[in-house]
Amino acid sequence: MQTEMENGTNVARKIGKNDSFIYSNEIRYFSNGEKIQKKKQITAREYIELLENKDTSRRQIRKIRQCFIYERQYFMVECFTNVDGNPSILRIESTGEAQKIQIPPILQVLREVTNEEFYETRFMADLNYEMPTSDKMQIKHMIAKDNAKANAAEN
Fold it and tell me: What are the pLDDT digits (tens) for 25-49?
């Protein structure tokens, strides 16, 4: 759940599975050209109170997050389940140092979206968000190609 503030955003998160959850509140804003993020754990009651002030022009984002380590590098794949096109985004934890990142061979990367606001969660939360048609078409093409390979391998 996200609320726009005058100079930033206020994000409440519920993370977990089954009947076990943790809640957090993150406030993001810019100060003197620098991005500031303040995050704290909150109670379920505080989370519910924050939901009462949610931005009705945005949807609550649901995603499945899968984390793993490959070649001593931490990766996170986030699959958005209630967003047009159901995009999956690979996030890579970086130390900030110049290091060579090896994408695991089991993953197919469509394209780099690091600096594209269009693929930030806050944009995908907009009720009118639509995944770019060119990306949807490219994904369909990749899936069809993979299915054709799998079928050829079976024969």
Answer: 999 888 888 888 999 999 999 999 9
Longest dimension (CA), the chain: 62
8 and 43 both lie in a single domain:
yes
pLDDT digits (tens, 9 = 90+) for 8-23: 788 899 998 888 999 9
Question: Containing domain of residue 2, as a range?
Answer: 1-56
**Residue 120 contacts by C-beta under 8 Å, 6 or more apart in sequence?**
none
Q: For residues 85 and 71, give the distance between their C-alpha atoms in angstroms, rounded to a whole number.
A: 30
| pTM of model > 0.85 | no
Residues 102 and 118 in one domain: yes
CA 59-111-132 angle, 5° bins: 45
88, containing H or E segment: strand 88-92
